[in-house]
Amino acid sequence: MESKLVSISFVISTLMIMSVFSGCLTSNGGDIIEVNNAPSINGDIEADIFLSDAGLIFFTVFDEDINTLKIDITINDNLTDNLLKNSELLGWSIVISISDLDIGNHKLKITAIDDIGQQTIWMSIISIIADLVEEDGDEGDADNDSNNSVLGCLDSTALNYNLEANEDDGSCTYSANQTLKILALHGGGGSAASLQSNDGIQDLMEALPEYDFYFPQTPESDGVWIRDAPGGKEEGTIDPDWANQSISYLDSYIMENGPFNAILGYSQGAAMSIIYLAHSDIVFDKVILMNGYLETAHQGLMDTIVDQTPFLESALIFEGENDEWFGYGSAEVADIFSNSTHLIGDAAHEPPNKSDRVFQHVVDWIKENQELGNVSYPLENGPVSSEWWSEILFCDEEEVSGVDDYNTSQDDNHQCDVSFIIDSGNITISTNGLPNHDFESGPGCCTSAQTTSYTIPIEPTNDTDCNPNISTNGCTMAPERGSIAFAVNGIAIYGPEDGPGGDAIAGQEGAYEEDRQQIWLGICHGHSGPGGEYHYHADSNCVHWHAEENQTWEDYSINSSRTLSEHSGIVGFAFDGYPIYGFVGWDENGNIKEMTSSYKLKNGSNGYNGIDDYEYISGLGDLDSCNGQFGPTPEYPNGTYHYHTTWENGEGGIGFPYFINCYRGEVPNESGGEGGEDSDPCAGHGETWGPGIGPPPEGCGGPQMDAETGLLTGYYGKIPPITGILMIISGIVIISRFKSEAFAEGVPNLADTIDVCHRDPVLA
Questions:
Q1: What is the pLDDT of residue 35?
Q2: pTM tops 0.70, yes or no
Q3: Contacts of 38 by beta carbon, 8 Å cutoff, 6+ apart
Q4: Structural domains counted in the chain
Q5: 52 lies in which domain range?
């Protein structure tokens, strides 16, 4: 019997070694198969185009059969005419007329589809600005006529600001998300001028240049919004209309100067803000209350407030720890809002200035929640519509091109498949777990189709216990194992920790030598794990990459996704519903830049211990502790919280956590994938069961290929010792083939390193 087991084990080991090496031994030889690549589109658009220069724009296009190429051009989601033209000098060009565009920003989308259904999309913003107005006459005439004027828009925040103008002609135009306003109510006994000149308010105005602050003056005498009772402060009132004069005044002021995105109240102005919320139908996106209190002496007003609570507006409550006047009132104020943030700073009975320990948190809170009213997305463009999701998600078409696993010897012709259903404010994504690009399974070969679904909210809700600008305290952390998000092609996104708990990316890039369980990541920093589930540990920008002429997927380089040409596309969605963008985004001034993380390795650490080796340093990079930020994006022009993939931190070191570290939004109880590691009865090998840990779950024993090490594994004497030796030998051979060469010790060199079975890649 023992002899029979030895023979069987020997055959199994031999067959597995031959199957793994068959791909590597045959991949460099033989004839080169012609590949029909997806179309490629190249071109640049000037940052600003003067109205008089808006004529024709050109893009070069390539495809193996250009005559069958179908090209659709939309500007602001409307189809527009175009011409496909061939010239000896430039080759094939797409010619588009923009002469009929008005001043402002316009979304351009070019879609090219070849004869086998491969699709390439190119998107950008066309910014049309007004022409500069030139003075009539020569310089001599201008010198002689001091009254000579140049008409134009004098507002530097307007789209058509005229630098040469010296007299405003009333022509200023503004983008929809340009005018943000805060209504600021002064304290009792104060005035609009005194609040505006306050040091803390001046610092806040300087820190929020995108906002216009408005300071109304109370209509009541003595600078109060709510008059004392006839018998004095202690007597109180029961009249629900006691503040009607101030309420009516604010109604008129807002009608004339609004709409306002936020209401800010200081001291009695905070109390008046609450009264106004209870008595008015006007809704603010955010409420900022400083050194405030409730007017509990006026029972009639309080009854109306109680009837309206809890208020649903997002509220920021600031309290000065040295406030001897109304420091007690802040907690009471916070309790009447369902979504409030309570900050305690250094101040006395004053708004916080820029030296206050929480001043920046106040600024960040306002910026993070920066929106233009309760905007509903247009049905055809917004995330609430199926059309929007059809454009964002891949592999939901009827026909998709097959892709190849480079760790096999045959052409696999894997076809990704994604479908979705929108219901009750959620979207459920169903996927077969196969990518839309060629890939490498790695030693855990081989990737197989899965049955997985993810459910996320269409309109995410911020977790009120989580303030990622400060720390991850109170935030829901991304799981250390299994999926933490999903890509737009339906592929699972994993966190940085893998196997024994080290940082898989740091190990792959040579920051440390892994001596527990070898890590190997292929194209796009992905590979397959137990059960054949393919997943990304970093990057994933390859979902948008298109090979150029004579290129294959082996030519993909992470650096191709870090070029500062335009804002990155959405590469996936976290389980809280917020999108994950690629490396490139917009800074607070709208400039293109690569987003960097704010995590760094602790002194003496190298990633061997995973997340425990990193620390969050606020302001080190562009992103917060969850690896996200609030701001506008191409798909969310009014702004949204969103994450970015990162390859570097603010100091140029490795960009942990690569995707996300925590969730800014509330995570539904069942947002993760059905299937994969969490539901696989044989999952947890090397962590919850295996050699030296414990027996496998029932039905999960026997020899198999380890997902990370590539070693054949068996358990508890069921396989004779000689077979175990063969397994170790086969594992060593496989590891020696696939293991990437480590970089020098210390902070890793971030160059792209990929070692594959096929011919050596050409890195861009």
A1: 67
A2: no
A3: 114, 118, 119, 120, 401, 546, 547
A4: 2
A5: 40-129
